[in-house]
Amino acid sequence: MKHIVINAHFVCEKLAVGVFDLCYVPTLHQVADVFTKILPPSRFTVLCKKLNLCFSLKFNLSGDVRHSVKCLPIDHG
Fold first, then answer.
1. In this structure, how many other beta carbons lie within 10 angstroms of the beta carbon of residue 42?
2. Over the stretch 5-50, which tens digit does the pLDDT of each residue have?
3. Which of 28, 30, 64, 70 fits a 20 to 30 Å CA distance from 52?
4. How is 27-46 classified by DSSP, letter by letter?
5. Centroid of chain to Cα 66
Protein backbone atom coordinates (compact mmCIF):
# COMPACT_ATOMS: atom_id res chain seq x y z
CA MET A 1 0.00 0.00 0.00
CA LYS A 2 2.87 2.37 0.77
CA HIS A 3 4.19 2.30 -2.82
CA ILE A 4 0.75 3.37 -4.12
CA VAL A 5 0.71 6.38 -1.80
CA ILE A 6 4.25 7.35 -2.86
CA ASN A 7 3.30 7.00 -6.56
CA ALA A 8 0.16 9.10 -6.04
CA HIS A 9 2.21 11.89 -4.42
CA PHE A 10 4.75 11.73 -7.25
CA VAL A 11 2.00 12.09 -9.87
CA CYS A 12 0.31 14.94 -7.96
CA GLU A 13 3.62 16.82 -7.69
CA LYS A 14 4.32 16.46 -11.42
CA LEU A 15 0.78 17.61 -12.27
CA ALA A 16 1.17 20.64 -10.01
CA VAL A 17 4.33 21.84 -11.77
CA GLY A 18 2.94 21.14 -15.24
CA VAL A 19 5.23 18.26 -16.26
CA PHE A 20 2.20 16.54 -17.80
CA ASP A 21 -1.56 16.88 -18.12
CA LEU A 22 -4.28 14.38 -17.48
CA CYS A 23 -7.09 14.31 -19.97
CA TYR A 24 -10.29 12.34 -20.31
CA VAL A 25 -10.18 9.48 -22.79
CA PRO A 26 -13.60 8.15 -23.81
CA THR A 27 -14.07 4.38 -23.83
CA LEU A 28 -14.24 4.41 -27.62
CA HIS A 29 -10.59 5.54 -27.75
CA GLN A 30 -9.27 3.66 -24.69
CA VAL A 31 -6.87 1.13 -26.19
CA ALA A 32 -6.01 -0.31 -22.75
CA ASP A 33 -9.45 -1.97 -22.83
CA VAL A 34 -7.95 -4.64 -25.08
CA PHE A 35 -5.90 -5.82 -22.07
CA THR A 36 -8.47 -5.30 -19.31
CA LYS A 37 -11.94 -6.13 -20.67
CA ILE A 38 -13.81 -8.84 -22.49
CA LEU A 39 -14.62 -7.27 -25.86
CA PRO A 40 -16.67 -8.26 -28.87
CA PRO A 41 -14.44 -9.48 -31.73
CA SER A 42 -15.02 -6.35 -33.84
CA ARG A 43 -13.94 -4.00 -31.01
CA PHE A 44 -11.00 -6.24 -30.14
CA THR A 45 -9.80 -6.11 -33.75
CA VAL A 46 -10.06 -2.30 -33.93
CA LEU A 47 -8.05 -1.85 -30.73
CA CYS A 48 -5.40 -4.37 -31.80
CA LYS A 49 -4.96 -2.46 -35.04
CA LYS A 50 -4.54 0.81 -33.11
CA LEU A 51 -1.78 -0.88 -31.09
CA ASN A 52 -0.19 -2.32 -34.25
CA LEU A 53 -0.87 -5.87 -33.03
CA CYS A 54 -1.76 -8.68 -35.37
CA PHE A 55 -4.05 -11.24 -33.74
CA SER A 56 -5.22 -14.46 -35.28
CA LEU A 57 -7.43 -17.24 -33.97
CA LYS A 58 -6.87 -20.76 -35.20
CA PHE A 59 -9.71 -23.22 -34.68
CA ASN A 60 -9.67 -26.95 -35.08
CA LEU A 61 -12.71 -29.22 -35.32
CA SER A 62 -12.56 -30.26 -31.66
CA GLY A 63 -13.34 -26.70 -30.60
CA ASP A 64 -9.86 -25.90 -29.31
CA VAL A 65 -8.79 -22.29 -29.87
CA ARG A 66 -5.14 -21.38 -30.20
CA HIS A 67 -4.16 -17.75 -29.96
CA SER A 68 -1.26 -16.21 -31.79
CA VAL A 69 -0.22 -12.62 -31.04
CA LYS A 70 2.66 -10.94 -32.79
CA CYS A 71 3.91 -7.37 -32.51
CA LEU A 72 4.43 -5.50 -35.74
CA PRO A 73 7.01 -2.73 -36.15
CA ILE A 74 5.61 0.78 -35.76
CA ASP A 75 6.12 3.04 -38.75
CA HIS A 76 7.18 6.47 -37.38
CA GLY A 77 7.70 7.95 -40.86
1. 8
2. 777 888 889 899 999 888 898 888 889 998 899 989 888 888 888 8
3. 64
4. GGG-TTHHHHS---HHHHHH
5. 21
